[in-house]
Design a protein that fits this description.
alpha/beta, Rossmann fold, 2 domains, six-stranded parallel beta sheet, 12 helices, 15 strands, 38% helix
Length: 345
């Protein structure tokens, strides 16, 4: 059978979601939806989609898709999920961040539990070949010896590139979650449109404690230290792992290499957003249909995305309290706003 899908949000980011559809099987894009009619018409013509809507609720009620792509700004995630669940949608792909404030994740958790609708975060890098096949996880877990230190950095704030950075970090650590965090931060940027919706301190430097006393320095900032020559924060991710027997160095667009005891030369491999982003998006989307057909759980299922968000928001709570905090933890929207007000000053 062909699963029916709908695209919600016909902006620039949605092009990658649509571009891979000719390579997918058992999935049919039956409609697109956007509040701007001209965007709807553009996407219908560009991608040959037969039906378009400007009303989200009407679109889902009439088209009754199996799953949807929600490629919108992250300010109304809970409402979007509630509407989708009411319409009988089985899976909802959302662009990152899946949530911005603490109450967002609580609302999404409620929708997921009450409806059974899967909420999948579009952290498609998990489906890049070197990540999906376990190559990097195997190096970190089995070739470096006892890993005692890691550094993860990204340009952009913790709600911009931060979700991708933490998502991959947890993947490499076999889905381990941090046990504690201590962080510092500065600056609230409300001048640029992107930062107005992806609300977080402009710069955060955090230290996370993972199981086994693994320490991770986690840096999300326009001034993040990492990949040389990368000018756009969209393309900037960098990891270093240090173990008792070796080291792994991985960047977003300049490949990876690792070297262990007994190796005269390092082994190199590919890591490239430019070459791999559509591969990742294709495999990510196909995996939704595979899951709906009774196959393996999606790598970016709600439990994974929730763990990523909770780790990121805990760093903001540490800044707010001015101390190291244990995880899991709770935080309120009022405290979140109080931190923003303080950093604005």
């Amino acid at each position: 059978m062909a699963y029916r899908s709908v695209l919600v949000g016909c902006g620039a980011r949605a092009n990658d979601h649509m571009a891979v559809y000719p390579e997918l099987h058992d999935i049919e894009m039956v409609a697109v939806c956007d509040i701007l009619p001209e965007r709807v018409e553009d996407y219908k013509k560009r991608y040959g989609v037969p039906v378009g809507y400007t009303d989200y609720e009407k679109c889902l009620a009439e088209m009754q898709p199996d799953f949807i792509h929600v490629v919108t700004m992250p300010g109304r995630r809970v409402w979007e999920a509630e509407v989708a669940a009411k319409a009988g949608v089985k899976a909802m792909i959302v662009e990152k961040p899946m949530a911005v404030v603490p109450s967002d994740i609580e609302g999404l958790d409620r929708v997921n539990r009450e409806s059974g609708m899967e909420i999948i975060v579009n952290c498609q890098r998990r489906y890049f070949p070197q990540f999906q096949d376990g190559t990097i996880t195997d190096i970190v877990q089995n070739k470096l010896g006892d890993v005692y230190f890691a550094r993860a950095s990204a340009k952009g704030n913790t709600m911009g590139m931060g979700p991708h950075l933490m998502d991959l970090l947890m993947l490499f650590l076999n889905e381990a979650q941090p046990e504690a965090v201590w962080a510092m931060a500065h600056t609230i940027n409300e001048e640029e449109v992107y930062q107005q919706s992806h609300k977080a301190p402009e710069s955060i430097l955090a230290e996370y404690w993972f199981p086994g006393d693994l320490r991770v320095i986690f840096d999300c900032s326009p001034d993040a230290l990492g990949t040389p020559g990368e000018e756009s924060f969209w393309m900037h991710l960098h990891f270093d792992f240090l173990g008792a027997k070796g080291r792994l160095y991985l960047t977003q667009n300049k490949g990876y290499w690792y070297q262990c005891e007994g190796m005269s030369e390092p082994i190199h491999g590919e890591s490239s957003w430019d070459k791999q982003h559509l591969i990742g998006q294709r495999e990510f989307t196909q995996a939704v249909a595979t899951w709906l057909a009774g196959g393996p759980e999606h790598l970016n299922r709600f439990a994974t995305g929730k763990a990523v968000f909770n780790a990121l928001i805990a760093a903001q709570k540490s800044v707010y309290e001015g101390k190291k905090i244990a995880l899991p933890t709770t935080w309120t929207d009022e405290e979140w706003q109080a931190l923003r007000d303080r950093l604005k000053r």
